[in-house]
Request: fold
Amino acid sequence: MRLLPELIENNRNWVANVNKTDPEFFNTLSKGQSPQFLWIGCADSRVPANQILGLNPGEVFVHRNIANVVVHSDFNCQSVLEYAVSVLKVKHVIVCGHYGCGGVKAASENHHVGLIDNWLRHIRDVRQKHEAALQEIDDEGARFDRLVELNVVEQAENVCHSTVVQDAWERGQSLAVHGWIYSIGDGLLKDLDVTIAGPDEIAESYRVAINRNV
Ligand code: CO
Reply:
């Protein structure tokens, strides 16, 4: 099918509803954005940032990729981070993983898929780094959940160590980095207690998060 009439129709209905509630909504948005939050989450279709957070367009800047990975050499993610922190001056960066993440699952198995294996390698690195702790968990599902959590902790660390965030803290900008998990099964967010608001908090927050019980 070349056309997607139902989606265009959905759009028209959404615009009509928004205008009914707030006739100035689109006019206001067209003047600019000043979101307080940057969301770095998984590309999974079941994890839509705005809906989970109950936020409207204009309220959260979003970067999503497979398994919410933050790599220093990924110019896409780092550019989003830079724009959000240095230009938009967001107050919070939220790294949010989710239980049942297909990317993390694939990384914990050793099947060869193709190009994506290079991306998943970053999660395999997380798994290897925490291999001993993960092996202590007998239940396979619990071990998978823990790897999802550890991946968030590591990626939040990577945000903290980025030049963008280090420079922001250096110039005294108020900025906190958070690590959260979303549960697709019940729609609830869980704070992993990785909340880092300055360079001197990284090590302690990391230690607590890593030693946290499942
Ligand atoms: Co995922």
